[in-house]
Design brief:
alpha+beta, globular
Length: 235
């Protein structure tokens, strides 16, 4: 029994401009990727990159989390498609709706692919930073295919996030300390990672794509069980 407990104990990191010893349930922005929650990562290096800006150092806050008895949603598992991820994103984030197609696309994705993230204690999925958000927005506006969107999610290894959603999950968090993230080191790494993703993305756009666009998906009444929709977006 003790071995199983240890297996369920994970270490996660929160990149921030300040030290956060006691994350508070219910605080934060409701328009984040998966709604209100505490957004962390299993990678200390990524947390440090997310913590800094060009003008200031940051903090990588470290926690242990007992995941036993938590109801966990892994949007990057084979159980879900890339459209499940983007449907959750468009439901919570503020998108630029520039065309009638995008307006209908947002509604179609939410109606047919969304997942009730508030039913879970913990969520794992891609983090829609500036690059990912641009890819998702272009897909919504019929600019790239679903296959291109799926490939874009892997570009530059921009990282996954772990989001603590419920009051119960917050109660399982234990603060373990922090490390300072120096801007001179980690802002350079953050910029390089983003530039690598953008360059690979531009090269991908030069390739011909005969895949499914959002307008094709809507016209065809395509649902989540269609084999043409990419699954398992984790590497």
């Amino acid at each position: 029994m003790e071995v199983r407990k240890i297996d369920k104990l994970i270490t996660i990191y929160y990149g921030s401009e300040k030290n956060v010893e006691l994350p508070i349930f219910g605080e934060g922005k409701k328009n984040n990727d998966f709604g209100l929650g505490f957004y962390c990562t299993a990678s200390e290096e990524l947390a440090k990159e997310w913590a800094v800006s060009s003008v200031r150092d940051g903090f990588s806050n470290r926690y242990t989390l007992d995941t036993e008895y938590l109801n966990i949603l892994n949007l990057n598992s084979p159980d879900y498609t890339i459209l499940n991820w983007i449907a959750v994103l468009v439901e919570h984030r503020l998108f630029s709706i520039k065309t009638p197609v995008a307006r209908r696309a947002k509604r179609y994705l939410i109606d047919n692919f969304s997942v009730n993230v508030n039913a879970y204690d913990l969520i794992t999925g891609y983090r829609a930073d500036d690059s990912y958000f641009d890819y998702a927005e272009l897909f919504l506006n019929n600019g790239i295919s679903v296959e291109q969107l799926s490939r874009a999610m892997r570009l530059g290894k921009l990282g996954e996030q772990i989001v603590i959603k419920s009051k119960f999950a917050f109660s399982k968090l234990n603060y373990e300390g922090f490390d300072v993230a120096e801007k001179d080191q980690y802002y350079v790494l953050r910029k390089a990672r983003d530039e690598e993703a953008n360059q690979a993305y531009l090269e991908m756009l030069e390739e011909e794509s005969d895949g499914l666009y959002i307008q094709d998906i809507m016209r065809g009444g395509i649902k989540n069980d269609d084999p043409r929709i990419p699954r398992n977006i984790s590497e």
